[in-house]
Amino acid sequence: MATAYVLVNCELGSEEAVISELKSIEGVVEVRGTFGAYDILAKVESSQVEALRETITWKIRKIPKIRSTLTLMGIQGQE
Fold first, then answer.
1. How far is the C-alpha of 51 from the C-alpha of 49, rounded, in Å?
2. How far is 3 from 69, CA to CA, in rounded Å?
3. How far apart are CA 76 and CA 49, in angstroms?
4. Where does the pLDDT of residue 74 fall: very low under 50, low under 70, confident under 90, or very high at 90 and above?
5. Are strands 2-10 and 28-33 parallel, antiparallel or unpaired?
6. Farthest-apart Cα atoms in the chain, separation
7. Is 12 a member of any domain?
8. CA-CA distance, 45 to 76, in Å (whole number)?
9. How does residue 75 score in pLDDT terms, banded at 50, 70 and 90?
10. 10: how many CB neighbours lie within 10 A of its CB?
11. Checking CA distances to 72, which of 12, 46, 51, 57 falls within 20 to 30 Å?
């Protein structure tokens, strides 16, 4: 399972609309509003890295009112 965390900056006052849109995207498994340098944190999962990249590039980054994103790719940790 491929996992990415996407930090989102959006236009002032559009946070709720962006959160709602993010929740409707297949593969987005968790969305949280945040305080600090970024407005929203989204967790995205897919069985394939390529599908994960397409979701972020062609779905998440195209949401109106999003100014910028920063993607953190998860790596499998030791257990």
1. 5
2. 16
3. 13
4. confident
5. unpaired
6. 41
7. yes
8. 13
9. confident
10. 21
11. 12
- Tokens for 12, please give them: 């002032």
Only one residue has tokens 């069985």, namely: 47
In a domain, 78, yes or no: no
pLDDT band with cut points at 50, 70 and 90 for residue 42: very high
Give 9: exposed, middle or buried? Use CB within 10 Å, 0-12, 13-18, 19+.
Answer: middle
- In one-letter notation, the amino acid at residue 64 is P
Within a domain: residue 79?
no
Structure confidence at residue 79 (pLDDT): 52
Amino acid letter for position 10: C
Q: Range of 64's domain?
A: 2-73
Quick one: tokens of 11?
């236009």
